[in-house]
Amino acid sequence: MTRFFIETFGCQMNVVDSEKAAALLRRLGYEWTDDPEQAEVILLNTCSVREKPEEKVYTRIRQFRRRRRDQVFIGVMGCVAQLYGRRLLERVPGVDFVLGTQALGELPRIVEHLRAQGGPSIVQTRMSNRPEFLEISPAERRQRHVAYVPIMEGCDKFCSFCIVPFTRGRERSRSPVRILAELRALAEAGYQEVHLLGQNVNSYGLSHRIEGGRPLAFFELLRLVAEQSGFPRIKFTTSHPKDFMPEIVRAIEEYPNLCNWVHLPPQAGSDRILTRMNRGYTRADYLRRVQWIRSAKREIVLTGDIIVGFPGETERDFQETLRLIEEVQFDGVYLFKYSPRPGTPAARLSDQVPEEVKTERLMRLEERQREIQLRRLQRYVGRVVEVLVEGKSSKSQLHWAGHTTDNIVVNFEASRENIEGSLVKVEITRANPHSLFGRSLEVLR
Ligand code: 5AD
Ligand code: SF4
Question: Is this structure's pTM higher than 0.90?
Fold first, then answer.
């Protein structure tokens, strides 16, 4: 029996690609193992959005390469593979194949070839940018309860800091018919929650590359899947503020199964920096969208991403970002230090911010956001929420953990029966800065 091991770095899109890679290898009769020592094929699915996750990949390859080539084949897929291609072989010796983000379909052929004949390392990083989406069945997924389903891939926005348009290629939208068919199959198989994924879901159907050729705006797709997929919980991520429309908020108001959560990354609070980032909106534009969300008939949780220390960011610009988080009162924010990425325009700017300044700003922002978040989450204490139980809590086997419909993490005392995968009514008794704690009242289904 040939065993394979996959390690995944980065975003949810990579989680999906790893599931697809696993499905392709299983179709060859190979078997998944959680122990890399047992594996004959090791795949690293990589992320290049910042320097740190990229560095981690090199470390892992070196660790795995202690074994001889006749014992294990090592492949690198994902964004680092796409970015460096053949150069990766020089950077870290011992890589047997490099598979770009649009070459996943080649995986079985490459692995079978190497195992049968050996030979030099294989690099496949051609981009076709064709709107073709590799599909797997519900039974082939490893993730239970929550399904990640890409609706579009790639990005045409070219924010000046971001490597994604180079690693994931041009925007391609998937056929609404195919999306609906997959969602129905997943709902029938018992999945309770789906995340519609895209680098930029609001651009769904806007580009010319549409599988099947039938354009539909994102809010129309949302209405379609809310009405016809049979999914109790539908979430989507990531929204770019530029293409975010009031119709999306209206769809959420109208359909209870469209979850009350929007992830809308502002990236910065100062117009000067937003322009330099090439984001295509101003602070006022962003705040207008927040207003649409906040004035919805149903309470909608708002989260975002922020980068500190973008080249040229002054203390005054940073103060604008601090003011933004005060004004918006996010329920959660991912905060990042700017990390220069090869080939991006921002990396070439001469006024890079010193590392200590970035660190210091990050800490100030984190501290302030922590207070805001704690206060925000306290509004849940005493409320009864619906939690999809995804497993035991990462901190304690005594607690179950899951997310609410508005995507907040809830931990609660574990009953003895196994309720993984169930929807449970939980009364919230305590708020922490990043999660809620409660006691279960009733298992719904
Ligand atoms: N440096 C730091 N953060 C970045 N992100 C994207 N590129 C960079 C970079 N070069 C962040 C953005 C994005 C999130 C996924 O990662 O905030 O929304
Ligand atoms: Fe990167 Fe901007 Fe595209 Fe998001 S919208 S993937 S930050 S280029």
Answer: yes
